[in-house]
Amino acid sequence: MSRKLFALLLSEIKLLRIVCKSRECGAVLEIPASRLDVQPDGVTKCSRCGETLAAGGLDNPFSLLARAAVAFKRYADKTDVEFVVPDEG
Predict the structure, then answer these.
(1) pLDDT at 36
(2) Is residue 18 a contact partner of residue 48, using CB atoms and an 8 Å limit?
(3) How far apart are CA 25 and CA 49, in angstroms?
(4) Mean pLDDT score of the chain, rounded to an integer?
(5) β-strand 4-9 against 15-19: which pairing, if any?
(6) Which element (helix H / strand E) includes 72?
(7) From CA 34, how far away is CA 14, in angstroms rounded?
(8) Distance CA 73, CA 67 (A)
């Protein structure tokens, strides 16, 4: 059985979208990948409803993701990370 796959390299990501799922808010916060290292504490609150999305500080999952992406940039000449999403359609 064959499946269609969508593959995306970390180096190809230009924009991250964080979707608030609180109180059916649905707001989308867009962060350019080039600015990931500018917010060291990461995203903590929804800019629309004010709901806490994650704890602040170094354990913030958005901050961890940003730091990992920035760290991989330093090794772009040696490696890249690929995200594979199956096409269920």
Answers:
(1) 67
(2) no
(3) 7
(4) 83
(5) unpaired
(6) helix 61-73
(7) 7
(8) 10
